[in-house]
Amino acid sequence: MTVVFAALCVRLGFWQLDRAAAKLALRAEVAERAALPPLPAAALAATPEAAAQHYRRVTLAGRWLADRTVALDNRQVDGRPGFVLVTPLVLADGSAVAVQRGWLPRDASDRSRIAAPLLPAVPVQVAGQLAPPPSRLFAFGADAPGAAIRQNLDLGAWSAEIGVPLRPLSLVQLDGPQTPVDGLRRVMPQPSADVSRHRVYAGQWFLFAALALVLYVGILVFRARRPR
């Protein structure tokens, strides 16, 4: 039984190392794609194969659907809770892209108060990096359609709600020469920022395996030396 337990711990340790290696590979892929020339706006994917364009830089022209802005709650930056503002940007062909415009800290006195900056009604150009849809957090129930503050955002359901077809990706707006100064914090999420945690977990599993084997051998030695 002890050997089985030790083998399981070793297997879990290698599993954590595999996860760390996968995230390192993803980090390298993100850096490689970000270094590519900007993606032409006309080449923006409209199919589920859009993952091949994730983390590419692009500048999109369109108009904001400001009244459809959604604030995603419980998004942390530097350990502080806040909101990520997501607004549809309608393109020339009538489709739209969910733009993660930036992060706002939560109001300590009223968590439902959001000081969202105003958006222009005229056509704009938005520069940033393409990304998967906003990440999903654990939720006890579904968000009400039309709610300004939500825990998660499903692009398919949101597309039906706003009556505009959404591309199967999002655009993380980044600071640049044309980005307005509106108080939003703009940081491209790093999907592999917790590699060290997996290595720590792997070390713990290997330590558990070693301790189990040492205790097992110690018990056998003790029994062999015990007077009969």
Could you describe the 3D structure shown?
The protein has helices at 2-34, 155-162, 195-225; strands at residues 57-64, 70-77, 80-90, 96-105, 124-131, 149-150, 166-173. The protein is of the alpha+beta class and 228 residues long. It has 2 domains: 1-35 and 196-228; 49-173. Helix 1 (2-34) packs antiparallel against helix 3. The longest helix has 33 residues, at 2-34. It starts with a helix and ends with a helix. Its main location: membrane. It is a multi-pass membrane protein.
What's the SSE blueprint?
Elements: H1 2-34, E1 57-64, E2 70-77, E3 80-90, E4 96-105, E5 124-131, E6 149-150, H2 155-162, E7 166-173, H3 195-225
Parallel strand pairs: 2-6, 4-7
Antiparallel strand pairs: 1-3, 1-5, 2-3, 3-4, 5-7
Helix pairs in contact: 1-3
Protein name: SURF1-like protein
Family: Belongs to the SURF1 family.
InterPro entries: Surf1/Shy1, Surf1/Surf4
